[in-house]
Design brief:
By secondary structure, this protein is mainly α. The protein folds into 2 domains: 14-195, Up-down Bundle (Growth Hormone, Chain: A), CATH 1.20.1250; 204-391, Growth Hormone, Chain: A, CATH 1.20.1250. The chain is 76% helix and 1% strand. Strands 1-2 form a two-stranded antiparallel ribbon. The radius of gyration is 20 Å and the shape is globular.
Length: 400
């Protein structure tokens, strides 16, 4: 994966509309995925699956998204990022009611696979459009767009909590949400960039020519990226199951646990750049690992609702800065660092749900399964992150 650099241009009168379109698509994407995660226990129950089987289903969905990444470049080259974003966004949103109404495992698996594939295509298209738009302006907008995605995640989790508390059936909830988000997508297409601007690669050799000679720095970075994944997706995907399966809590309590995790992550992202400047990247990374792991262990082991909610909030706050810090490190790491970062993250995303689901399906319970997966990852991450963030001699770190 290479960083794209375009010659800076002049801000035009249509920039506000383009920012609105990209920001709205980010919010829609976040709403879809956060709602899906928040209501996973109800989706699982409707399909009559065990928690172990649900872990397999989630892994299959992640695998489909991973495979789809190898097809995004040729499809976007042929159709353009705007067409892919518009068509993929519609299919992504309307996978929700299919998932919500899935009474059979086969239908649920098919719908989740479709949703994750469309998620991959839309995410790549958004990244291309956002990069082209940001780089042609005097002031970049990538951070603000990422912040809007975080706010959409919080909004989706909060709305799901309120709707579940009101006793709405999950199938009706997802159907109505898809209708609202589908209507919102009508305002996305008009402001998108009409074409994909040419770009030049400026951050090293193409991955095809150097992947098999990855080198130790890039390999360490990829391992560190993989180890951040359990600290991110374990509380994100399994907080609701911790409340429902271990503690016998209500659907509203389960979605509240997911909501506080996303809230912590959103707040952490908006303050992460300042923290990196004041503390330094390695101290920030080590502190974030300790904070996120401690918060999750508290939420996973203490059967008290205030502790659980505080723990998931701290887990989100801690993990929020880990991926940005490693992404910045990739810019000064020799070898195909961005490729290593991407592969490590995606592969860990495939394996983590399976590991947690398998352990939770035994007599251990969800909380114990979460702890067994996260604690070793956190310990190893403190080791590999120190090496991954060690600045190569002669390189200058990228500013926050």
């Amino acid at each position: 994966m290479s960083r794209l650099t375009l010659a800076p241009g002049t801000t035009t009168a249509s920039d506000g509309r383009t920012f609105t379109s990209l920001g709205l698509q980010c919010v829609v994407n976040a709403f879809v995925y956060s709602t899906y995660l928040a209501r996973l226990p109800d989706i699982r129950d409707q399909a009559h699956l065990s928690i172990g089987a649900m872990g397999v289903v989630m892994m299959v969905g992640n695998l489909a998204g991973f495979v789809a990444t190898f097809f995004t470049a040729p499809v976007i080259r042929r159709l353009g990022s705007k067409r892919v974003m518009v068509a993929g966004g519609i299919l992504y949103v309307f996978a929700l009611p299919v998932i919500g109404g899935s009474g059979a495992p086969a239908v649920l698996v098919t719908a989740i696979v479709g949703m994750m594939v469309m998620n991959t295509f839309v995410d790549v298209a958004i990244a291309m459009q956002s990069a082209a738009f940001s780089l042609r302006r005097e002031r970049p907008v990538m951070s603000r767009l990422s912040g809007l995605y975080s706010l959409g995640t919080v909004g989706g989790g909060f709305a799901a909590s309120l709707i579940a508390a009101a006793g709405f059936d999950v199938s009706l909830h997802l159907l109505l949400l898809a209708a609202v988000l589908g209507a919102a997508l009508l305002f996305v297409a008009p402001g998108l960039l009409p074409g994909d601007e040419p770009a030049r690669r400026d951050d090293g050799p193409h991955p095809r020519t150097s992947w098999w000679r990855i080198g130790t720095p890039a390999l360490v970075l990829g391992l560190a990226s993989a180890l951040t994944v359990p600290l991110d997706i374990v509380p994100g995907e399994w907080a609701t199951f911790r409340v429902r399966d271990d503690l016998g809590g209500t659907a509203a309590a389960a979605t509240a646990a997911y909501f506080v995790f996303t809230l912590g992550m959103a707040l952490g992202r908006f303050g992460g750049d300042r923290a990196a400047v004041r503390l330094g990247r390695r101290p920030l990374m080590w502190g974030s690992v300790v904070l996120s792991a401690a918060g999750l262990v508290a939420a996973a082991t203490v059967p008290l609702t205030p502790v659980l909610l505080a723990g998931f909030f701290l887990a989100g706050l801690g993990v929020s800065t880990q991926s940005p810090v490693l992404t910045e490190a990739a810019a000064v790491t020799p070898g195909p660092a961005f490729t290593a970062l991407f592969v490590g993250n995606r592969l860990a995303g495939l394996l983590t749900p399976l590991a947690v689901g398998t352990l939770a399906g035994t007599s251990l319970g969800v909380g114990t399964a979460m702890t067994l997966v996260v604690v070793p990852s956190a310990v190893l991450l403190t080791v590999f992150a120190g090496r991954a963030l060690g600045r190569p001699r002669g390189e200058t770190a990228v500013g926050p």
